[in-house]
Amino acid sequence: MKKSIILVLLLLSVSGTARSQVLISLVFGDALNTDKIEFGLTGGFNRTDFNGTLETKALNNFNLGFYFHIMLKENSFLSTGVLVKNSFGATGMKPYQLGDPNLDAIFQNGTLTTKINTFAVPIMWQQRIKHRFLLEGGIQAGLRSKAYDDFDVEAANGAANFRREVGDEFYRLDAGLIGGVGYKLKKELKSMSIGMLYYYGLVDVRIDPNITSKNTSLNVYLRIPIGAGQKD
């Protein structure tokens, strides 16, 4: 349990919006973990981009959530959960006109970054090999909360930035394929694991018919069971 609390404290330092969900996870972790269900926290590094018509660069961020591994048969599990702090997006795009001559003059040579805050729910088949190696694959659904366009420019006399809320330019729902590999640090049924997942969006998330943007992400995660009776 000490290891779990340490991870929570670290993750809370980068997450304000997900604090209540994490605290609930700690309180009910003992009840949610059973002989056939592993429950815990997941968090890690996320590198996202758009697959579409825009020229973009990958955007780095972090995510945080909780997971369930439900045993279907020996070494085969249903892997699901919710990423409550999670975002998609990209950077390195050319700024568009804002309709304000002063702002347009400032940011015309700057950089545009789009960030879409999304609750993500993966539903995967997980196969465990020799109780340690994990193979996962399935689908993932997403529900957008807020989205922002950040304009940034650096010049000899300083830097400037401007944020615009653009939630109404993106659809609420997202869906795609997800899969990856992982490794459990101990042979026990419920133990910490590390791994990597890749998400490939199948849905164009932009409402504008002239621009195609499908979410993609590469996630390096750490999962820790909560209330599973680990010995420190």
Please, could you describe this protein's structure?
By secondary structure, this protein is mostly beta strands. The chain has one domain: Porin (Beta Barrel). Helices cover 14% and strands 58% of the residues. It is built from three helices and ten strands, in the order H-H-E-E-E-E-H-E-E-E-E-E-E. An eight-stranded antiparallel β-barrel has the order 1-2-3-5-6-8-9-10. A hairpin with a 2-residue loop joins strand 2 and strand 3 (76-85). The longest helix is centred in the N-terminal third of the chain and has 14 residues, at 19-32. The protein is elongated and about 65 Å long. Pfam families: OMP_b-brl_2 (PF13568). Keywords: Signal. Residues 1-20 form the signal peptide.
Question: Keyphrases for this structure?
Answer:
232 residues, mainly beta, Porin, 10 strands
Overall structural class, as computed from helix and strand content, comes to mainly beta
CATH architecture: Beta Barrel
The CATH topology label is: Porin
The termini sit apart by: 7 Å
* Helix content, binned percent: 10-25%
Order of helices and strands: HHEEEEHEEEEEE
Number of strands: 10
Radius of gyration equals 20 Å
How many domains make up the 3D coordinates?
1
- For the largest sheet, list the strands in their spatial order: 1-2-3-5-6-8-9-10
Largest sheet, described in full? 8 strands, antiparallel, barrel
Tell me what portion of residues adopts beta-strand conformation.
over 45%
Specify the number of helices: 3
Q: Which consecutive residue ranges, at least 5 long each, have pLDDT under 50? A: 1-18
Mean pLDDT: 87
Q: What coarse outline follows from CA principal-axis ratios?
A: elongated
Q: Under the CATH scheme, which class?
A: Mainly Beta
